[in-house]
Amino acid sequence: MTPGFLKVALLVLRKDLAIEARSREIVYTTLFFAVACVMIFSFAFVKEEGVPVDNAAAGILWIAVAFSGTLALGRTFERERYSETLRALLLAPAARPAVYAGKLLGMILMMAATEVILTPMVAFFFHAPFFARPLLLVALLGLGTIGFAAVGTLFAAMLVRTRTRDVLLPILLYPVTIPVIIAGVRGTAALLQSPPEEPVATLWIGLLTAFDVVFITLALWTFEPLMTE
Amino acid sequence: MIQFDDVRLVDVSRHFGRRRAVSHVSLDLHAGDILGLLGPNGAGKSTLIGMLATLVAPTSGSVVYGGRQGRSLGAELRGSIGLLAHELYLYPELTARQNLEFFASLYGLDVATVVPSALATAGLSDRADDEVSGFSRGMRQRLALERALLHQPKLVLMDEPFTGLDDAATELVRARLQTLSRAGAIVVLATHDLDLADGLVTRVAIVRSGKLVTDETASAGLRSRYRAMVGH
Amino acid sequence: MKKIFVPLAIVTGAMFVAAPIMIGMADYESTMLLVQKIFYFHFATWMAMTLAIAVCGVASLVYLFKASKVAEWYATSAAELVVVFSLFGLFSGSLWGRKAWGVWWQWDARVTMATMLCLIFLGYLIVRKYGGPGSEKLAAAMGIFGAATSPFVYKSVDWWRTIHPQTTVMRTLGDKWPGAWRLVIFCTFAFLFLTVLLLFARVHLEALRSKLDDMYLAAED
Description:
The complex is a heterotrimer of chains A (229), B (232) and C (221). Chain B has 232 residues and is an alpha/beta fold. In chain B, 31% of the residues lie in helices and 28% in strands. In chain B, the strands form 2 sheets. In chain B, strands 6-7-8-3-9-10 form a 6-stranded mixed β-sheet, sandwiched between helices. In chain B, strands 2-1-4-5 form a 4-stranded antiparallel β-sheet, with helices on one face. In chain C, helix 2 (38-66) runs parallel beside helix 6, helix 3 runs parallel beside helix 5 and helix 3 packs antiparallel against helix 6. The two termini of chain C are 28 Å apart.
């Protein structure tokens, strides 16, 4: 019996985790890149007195997430391009959107692993009380990551056979995910105020939820026609 | 899996903008055929294979599997198709066993029975738990062949499967393809290695610039006939 | 060329001749006087841009799922129009801002939003040109996702500017008063007709290009 949608997605996820577990290459390089981003932005946004510009922490966190996420997307699909294994996945009798779903889950986990390290780090360097409202912060980061990864996974997959894929991915991905960045940064910044502006953060969480629902649906729907020539 | 005993390309064309990759090709394939798809580079062989594999949609015409339109059949059809191309479709970071187990699970096969026998046929049982990145080209090819045939597909598509193989390995592949065709599979073999095709294929289709130049049963003197058709 | 093209062109031309006259004769708005009159074209260009985004999104969907050549022509023509009208909107908005507020650029909600949308559809054009074979499909994805994200861009930028008000208060572009209402509608329709006109013209160009490709292909046969 050919496996169902969820089973296929989990198979793909497990395969990706198995590959990553061997070398941990993408996780480490993505993390270090994110850290490097944060360092560079620090020089831009910390004033001479050593005090960061207001609300810089929120912006820096999300930029680092977006930039490192884009890198991770590129590297993940480069693996599938190497032996054209993406073609083999598309050839399986599984529903093709399930392959997308599996890749998306892997991407979310990858970005989450980076954020787990990055968030406390940014909080530490910028004296930012990120964890005043931990649940709201997790919701913001989680939903934002899902939205970014949903669009990114689709775009990275469809660009896999394009020669200029490395430069096209950011060109296409960033403008479309601007609502995610705005919502993430403003929501996080609201949580950094004293006292944390919970209603504002909740508003942004609502926007992110709507974005995620719309775009995951769109991606599942358009994956198959995009991946066949 | 969907059963069929014949596959037909009905006047298929495929163009990319101004470039015509395939132009009005019609072919009838039956169980037991080993079709040699011959032609120079860029003739459209890979595009035709892609169309048979449901990875490339024709811009006109259709592919018919046992009387049913490829377009109307869903994911199930792919369970009856096996493809091996130059790129091999193996994950170098995983072991031979992990590669086979992954694809076996994806195809809904019984991993415990299918994988060990595939490893044995490929002659890689003793290297099963080594990463594929450490394999020689020949070993990878044998593993890739078994991976492509794990689910015992009805339509077997091979796009240049002999590159980089030594004589012994080539013989193994030839024998395997012949066994498959005797068992009722439809084999399509795209290659520009005429010596290998000679004596193996039962039918020959020569393509040039996307067009079908000839489609006939194989006979002796393949190389000279090919040269006459294609011109070098 | 569609039959409606010439009559539509005449009507649109007449509207664009009449519009400046009507705008010149309209009442002055109390605080911004003459400069405010940019608004009539400014608002209309946003409407034109929105129409073009909708056309691009829908046409991209049709192209992706039905492999319709004609849909692809509409999608790419509409994307170009989005860029054209948003750039005009940014330009006219910048002029207005310079006169009204003294600065060339303000992170006004709608200006920001228009810039983002312009970027998205510029991305469409870039991927269509540099995406290699099969770039029409990639562009279609961008058209669909770009159109889908537009309401989110609108909302998020809007909230960004209004929930955290900055030191200077932006004039909302929605301010209208009774006498000017009809003029706004008139200019909006002029721009919408212009959009449709340009769309038809551009699609015609794509149709000719496609015919040329077909002739090349036929010549090879």
